[in-house]
Structure formats: structure tokens, C-alpha cells
Amino acid sequence: MSAPVHVLMLPSSAASSANCEEAQPEIASFKRENAGDYLDRRCQILKGQRKGSTTDGTGRDAKDVVTFEQIWSGSSPLEVAIATCCDHEGEDSIVPAMGRETKDTESSSTTVESGSSDMSAESERNCDGEKSKNKCSDVYRCGAIGRGKEGKFAALIARHCHSAGDRALSLAVLQRTMERDEIISKQQRGKKRKRNETESPSKSSSPTSMVIIKSDEPSDIAGNSTLAKAENASSVNSDEKEIDCHRMNNFLSAGGLKVLNQWLIDAFTPVTKAAEPVIQSKRRKPAKDQEVTVGTMTSPTGPILLPIIIILQSIPFNMELVMDSQINKQIKKLKKSLDRLVANFDEEESESSSSDEDDDGGKVKRQKRTLEALTHPVSGGMPVVQVQKDVEKLMQTWKVAASDRSEKDETLASGSFYGELRAKMEEQFLVLSRFESGEAEKPAWLEKLDPSPATLQSPPQPTPATNSSAAQKAAAAAKKRQEQLKRQSDASKRLQQQQAELKAAQAARLEAREKMEQYRKRMMQREGTMLKKRKAETVTDSQDGLVDKKPAPTRKVTWADQKIVGAKLVEVREFVRETDVYQSEEEEKRMQDSDDDSDEKFEEDDFDDETQASDSADSDDFDGIMNEEEANFSQEEEAGVTFETLHLRSNMADRV
Q1: CB neighbours (10 Å) of residue 324?
Q2: d(Cα 42, Cα 3) in Å, to the nearest integer?
Q3: Within 13 A of 229's CA, how many CA atoms are on the CB side?
Q4: 3-state SS of 577-605?
């Protein structure tokens, strides 16, 4: 027996006996140890739990109790977890479950395996007449996602549903959830239509279905009448039920569409399997040029590709969820692959038909392949043409839904304001019509718009009290104005004072800079005069013959013995003294270096009195040092002259 099996596992959305026969090889891989459909077992376990809870040893026998282990023996823990996320018979008080109250498991399993055609036949047998048919059309099957468990179900199938059987089980739950939401929304629309018909039996006579309720409160808009909409308990209950008819949308918002996107990719992606290379010997390594053949095969979850596409055709369309999950890109990719397969098949058939001739000129009789029977791993092992048609239908459905939604959004965005304005105008029109007929008093808004004589009267004459109050207000305004002017004048004075202080500070800075520049020029002039003086002195010395001629070296004679005349061995030492010319050149270079340093130091911008005083003190010290240098220089000159004189005298003595 195949369990769990659902009508969605059939190759086509419209199930038939022929399709059931074709789908048997794919369904054979979903066999389980326990017989019976998952949804039927769900009903049985809940019935068994209710029996066990009511058995207290007084009214029933212990042998009639159905335990948990007996019902779910051979079922996986994942099936039990999925069952806890679904509702059961009697949970919803809106409509009962479809007739599946069979006691035997075999009858329930045959009902599911027979397909949707057997279900429709069973429903026609149970429903007699037009009344019973309408009742059966408003009935949904148990096994839909429970209220508030959409997120839990999405997380469960995303983390644990990996095999084809588990995913087929989840798709069966999703299909029954959509059936339940569609039936409930249909019932709500019918109830709303009936309620509107009962509230407004004659819509042609009145433009709106508003009801006027009289009241004695004078603060109302219409005097003693109030406009209100008729509300009852049935409308509140219908709103509560409308929230409950969006379980599939809640599942998709909780990440269910991303799960379906991943399942779609796994279904149409072929599985590659590489053959192991043949090794001749254990010691020898395989040759480098040995080819490894790679083959493709259908994905293990390929048979659920068509059910996923059928599910996507019926889900509530939401552009944000579709773009977020990026399932539209995968559908386009699948569509291109299927179109390529069909185009290649047509070309291969045309080539093979032209080359099928024997030697005698006759054609070979062979069984030609048909496009309808073409299967491929990209189509999940299902017929390529059928999958292509369903994909095109899905894309067309979503395109229409997106266009309808965009038009609806534009109408809502543009007509929301005008709709409210129109409702307000209709409301005031009803009030005005009741006032003209004498059923209500004149509204307040009409009194303001009516140019009656009372509104055109002259304004009242001012009294002394009003005059005094006006004078007080004028005096207060004048006083306030004076205070403002005073504050403005004080602010302007402060601003002028600050500007004057800023100008004075700038002038002081400029004056200090000029003084420093004058001091620097004076120092440079003084150094220049001293340099000229020294050069002039060196020129005079050269004219006297003291600089051009080198001074004679001094000699120190040590006598070897007492005999002065007969002394042959004499030790002579010469002492040479540099002239003042060389000293003057070095001083000139040193003065130039000091001028460059002084130029760099005097380029500062900010000076105060203390710095100027220190500069004057430094200049006095410099004058004292220069005077000392001149005195020393004069002493050296005198010493040099004396030395030269002594040197000449010694030479004269030697000659003598």
C-alpha cells in the first residue's frame, strides 16, 4: 500500500483513471509500512484520544479504546509532528469535515488512491437534491494547518522534510489548507451579501444604506438627529472569521514561499553521478588520460515538481513575498529549459526521419517517439509538455494577479480622499433634505453659511470698559516695543565697542612690527659700518708692507758648548704667526652668517613691551662686546708691532 499518497502526486491537475495508471511507478517510491492515508489516520487518532478521555470504566469497555501506539504504529516521528500542526474534525465550528467517518482503514486508503474523480463521485452520492449539493460544496476536508501554527509548520518542513514522501505529505496539507480558506471566504462573502440585502432592501430609492437614529442631545450636528451606521453582532463575528480564512497567506509570510522555492529547485535540478574509473592493478596508478564518464539522472524529489507548480497556481499572490523569495527567477529558468528541450526534440525528429531508409529504398518501420511522451530529468521525470503547460499557466496567472493588484492600488491611492469627501457630502445632503421636509432642525453648519439678516447686523458699539481694555493693551504693546528697541540699541553699542577694540589691537600689532623692522635695519647698518672699518684697516696694513710680506720666522738657538765661534751643531726652531688678514676674512664670514640668522629671527609678528625691552638690553650687550673686541684687536696690533720690532732687532744682532 502507498501511504501517504495524495491526488497532487498525479501528473495532471485533472485526475483521471488513465493518469492514475501512469502515476503508479512514481507513487511506488512513497510506500510506507502502515496502510492508510495520513489524513485518515489523523482523524482516527483524534477519535481514539476522545474515546480514551471519555472512558472512565463506567460506560465503555477497555477494549474499545484506541491508543496512540496502535494508530501510529509504523509511522515516522515527522508524520506525527506534522499531524500536531493540523486541525481535525470538530475543531472549527464553521463547517464540518467531509464524509470520512469510515471505521476501516482499507476503505479510507482506497478513497485517496482513487483520485479526485472518486471523491467527486462520493460527494454526489452523499448529496441528494439541490439543497444537499450546496451543503456539500461548502464542506472542506480535515488536515489543514491549524490556527496559529503556520510558522511552526513552515519551520518543521524546512528543517526536516528532505525525502519525496515527506514533501508530498506537506503538499497535501497545503492543498487542504487552501481549500479550507477558499470555502470559508466564499461563505463569508455570501453572508455579507445577505446581510447587505437585509439591511438595505431598496437600494434604488436611497443612495446609501445609512440609518438615522434620533436623540435628544443638542450637541449633535443635525440638532436632535444623529447619523450612524447600523451594526449588529453578526458583522463582528464575520470580521473574526475573516481573520481565520488566511492561513495559507500566513504560512507564506512565515517563510513558506522560500521553502517551496527550494523544493522547486531540488525537483528540476538533475543529479549527476560519476562512474568510478577502472583500476587494472592495485600497485599501478590509473593513466592520466583515462576518461571518467558522468551521467545525469532525475532528482529523487522530481515527481513532486508538478504538484508544487499546481500549488503555486492557487496560492494568494503577494508581490513582496515573491520578489523576496526570488521564486519567479527559478520559474523563468525552468521555462527556458523546457522550451529548449521541446525545440531540440523537434530538430532531432526531423533529422531522424530523413535518414531512416534501407538499402532497397524502402523506409524502415519503427515506433516514433511522440512529444507528449517525452520525459527528462529537468521535468522531474514527468512529461515535458505537461510541465511546460502548467508553468505557462502559472506565469500567466501571476501576471494577471500583478496587473490587477497594481490597478487596485492606483484606484485606492487616487480614490480614497474623494471617497471620503463623497460620503461626507451624501451625509450632509441627507441632513439638508430632512431639514427641508421639516423632520429635523436647521444644522449649525447651515446657519453659518446662510446670509440671514441676523448675520448682516452692524457690529456692537464699544463700551468704556472695552475702551479701557484697549488702551491698556496699546500701552502694554508700546512698552514692549520700547524694551525691544532698548535691547537692540544696547546690543549695537556692544558691537561697536568690540569693533573699536579689535581695530586698536590690529593697529598695535602693526606698530610693533614697524618698530622691529626699524631695529633690524639699524643693526644691519651698524654691522655694515664695522665691516667697512675693518676692511679699511686691512688695506692700510697692506700698504705698510705688513700683510703682503710674510714675517720672518723667529729662531731660538741653543749652543752646544761654551765656544760660541766654533759651534757647529745648532738647534733652530721657527715660530710662524698668522697675520690679521686671515682673521678679518673669517670674521667677515661669521658676520654674514649672523646676519642670516638675525633675518630669520626678526620675522615674528607679535611683540610686546617686554620683548622690546629685552631686545634693547641685548643690543647694549652687543655694543659692549664689540667695544671689547676692538680693544683686544688694538692690543693685538700693538703686540704684533712689538713682536715685529723685537724680531728686527734680533736679526740685526745676528748680522753683527
Answers
A1: 14
A2: 13
A3: 7
A4: CCCHHHHHHHHHHHHHHHHHHHHHHCCCC
Cis peptide before 4 (omega within 30 of 0): yes
Helices within 24-128 (DSSP H only):
24-27, 38-54, 68-71, 77-84, 105-113, 116-126
Which helix (H) or strand (E) is 520 found in, with range?
helix 464-544
Beta strands in 520-643 (DSSP E): 554-555, 574-575
Residue 418 has pLDDT above 90, yes or no: no
Centre a 10 Å sphere on the Cβ of residue 473 and count the other Cβ atoms it contains: 10
Q: DSSP letter at 512? A: H
Query: Mean per-residue pLDDT for 442-449?
Result: 80
Task: Round to whole Å and give the CA distance between 6 and 346.
Answer: 34
User: Can you state the angle between helices 105-113 and 116-126, rounded to 10 degrees?
Assistant: 120
DSSP letters for 424-439: HHHHHHHHHHHHHHTS
Give the type of residue at 351: E
**Cell numbers found for residue 3:** 501511504
3-state secondary structure of 21: helix
Contact 535, 591 (CB under 8 A): no
Record the pTM. Answer: 0.46
Beta-carbon contacts of residue 470 (< 8 Å; ≥ 6 apart)? 462
Sequence-distant (≥ 6) Cβ neighbours of residue 371 within 8 angstroms? 342, 345, 346, 384, 385
How far from chain centre, in Å, is Cα 461?
68
- Sign for the CA dihedral angle at 428, 432, 435, 439 comes to negative
What's the mean pLDDT in 249-260?
Answer: 90
pLDDT score for 534:
85
